[in-house]
Amino acid sequence: MKPFTYERARTPAEAAASAGRVQGARFIAGGTNLIDLMKIEVETPAHLIDVNGLGLDRIEATPDGGLRIGALARNTDLAADERIRRDYAILSRAILAGASGQIRNRATTAGNLLQRTRCPYYYDTNQPCNKRVPGSGCSAIGGVTRQLAVIGASDACIATHPSDMAVAMRVLDASVETVRADSTTRVIPIADFYRLPGNTPHIDNSLEPGELITAVTLPKPVGGRQVYRKVRDRASFAFALVSVAAVVQPDGSGRVALGGVAHRPWRIEAAEAEMPEGAKRVADRLLADARPTSENAFKLALAQRTLSSILAESEGTTR
Ligand code: SF4
Fold first, then answer.
1. Ligand 1 near 256 CB (within 6 A)
2. Cα separation of 312 and 319, whole Å?
3. Side-chain half-sphere of 155: how many Cα atoms within 13 Å?
4. Are 227 and 244 contacting, i.e. CB atoms less than 8 angstroms apart?
5. How does pLDDT run across 109-164, given as a tens digit for each residue?
6. How many CA atoms lie within 13 A of 14 on its CB side?
7. Which terminus of the chain faces fewer neighbouring Cβ atoms within 10 Å, N or C?
8. 210 lines ligand 1 (CB under 6 A)
9. What is the Cβ-side half-sphere exposure of residue 19, based on CA atoms within 13 angstroms?
10. Measuring from atom 3 of ligand 1, which residue has the nearest CA?
């Protein structure tokens, strides 16, 4: 691990200002991804800004009937919160599908959204990787691609985003609240938060340098049957091959987002109009522009069948 300096920030604005001022600074909270990356020198921050003392761990009702989740609310606390379990069950289920109990005890809401890809080449500093070293090339293209993206990828990167929580947040239309280095604040709809790789795969999201997430806000509850189903190679502590977050209303309408297929949670609202017609119609629309490799083409059928299973259970019938 390379040497770095360290400070404890006292306010969100102070943390953001410091991150904007010091080249190569990173925020640290739970550290469940960053410390791993520092150990293998994928991340080599010059300065760490500890944000654990900022008091951003509360989960509060909003005036419009939603919930405001502090950026530092731990994954375990968020998944167990009575209001989340009752009104946003899909979020609780997605969180519990991720990582281990020990990691969820440390990992924060913002950190979960900001975790980096699990593309194996990103973690191997002997291999070219455009996300790790811009312009160096992509070892995954032409390499082992079973876990990687089937849609929204580019000639520069075919990585997927690993967060389960983010898929549920996308289907719930969450918004990300931030403070920037100049102390101004803004709200970013989660639909606009994650970027596709394009020719800048080293930039995962729309945050500016130094910008700190302070909270994630959920709109008022949408009701319906809420399911998060994660398909993976082993039953625990594995990232999704495919995951499906679905909200199904009694009349068959609803919402769907996919995880494990793209550089961001994959939702196309227009596809949801097909929900009463069945999973194949929805999946065909959601994945119409898919460009899978021979190793990961199975994800298309897997996504459709997983959604089909959810819809069949929601109807109380078998399809
Ligand atoms: Fe790096 Fe992306 Fe290629 Fe993986 S897919 S090696 S993260 S550039």
1. no
2. 6
3. 1
4. yes
5. 999 999 999 999 999 999 999 999 999 999 999 999 999 999 999 999 999 999 99
6. 10
7. N
8. no
9. 28
10. 138
